[in-house]
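Summary for the funding panel

The consortium committed to producing paired sequence-structure records for every protein in the target list. Below we show the first two records in order, beginning with the earlier of the two.
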Amino acid sequence: MESIDVTGWSAMLLGLTALSAGIGALRKPGAWRTMLEEVERSPALQFVCGMLELVIGATVYLANPWLPNDLLSCVLKGMGGLMMAEALVILGFVDIYSQFWLRSLTHMHRGWAMSTVLLGLALSVLGALRLA
């Protein structure tokens, strides 16, 4: 059995997820704001979102080695660590954290959506090139 390039797959799957989320946000401009408002109102959603991000972040972090000569694996390890930190903030301080994002999305919705699309595109392409 050939070895699996975990970094390539992680990059491609995270990239496709971000790309799709960004396209969805561009197609339906108020969707992210509505989601944040719903999470802010629901302790159950806060817990589920926080735990889901913690699990995904931990998986990305633990699956990608820190190899200084492999920039993509280092970037993904960093992203996984940031996802875990954000998950803990969501679990403990969602009321404060969600207000930051709600204000930010009000003024920069299209910018965040385009940034997400570009990040997703970059990760997808880098992951696909590694797997090719």
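The next record, for a separate protein in the list, is shown here:
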Amino acid sequence: MKNIETHIIIESNLEEAWNTLMDHNSYPEWNPFIKQIKGNTKEGDILDVVLQLKDKKPMAMAPKVLVNNNTNEFRWKGKLFVEGLFDGEHYFKLEAIDNHKVKFIHGENFTGILAGPILKIIQTDTKNGFEAMNQAFKKLIEQKQLTLI
């Protein structure tokens, strides 16, 4: 298994961070990496997701929701053509550090017979996409917090 994982500390309570993360309708307004998530988010549901790596064409996918653990973790699994070729288990986790600070963990586990070769090609751009989303997520939440003060 191959993995890309990023994280960032956000000045926010867990509930506000979770609600912002799960407000998929607002993604086109702020998210530079995940341009669209449509569909129900219950475990077993299939989503319509559009990813956008910098300077690349958008990629549409239809991953299956694996985990939606309220306020802690949202995870899906997508595949390239058929399962076992190149699969990606994308995850978002939120961990409370204290009442006003959370750690956002954003990553993906890659498996399948083409995972190694494909990951060599996309690893840097994918990690940059994760980090761009993380920064935008942090900025959005912290700006919301400032307007509440």
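Regarding this second record: The first helix runs from residue 14 to 21. The chain has a mean pLDDT of 95.
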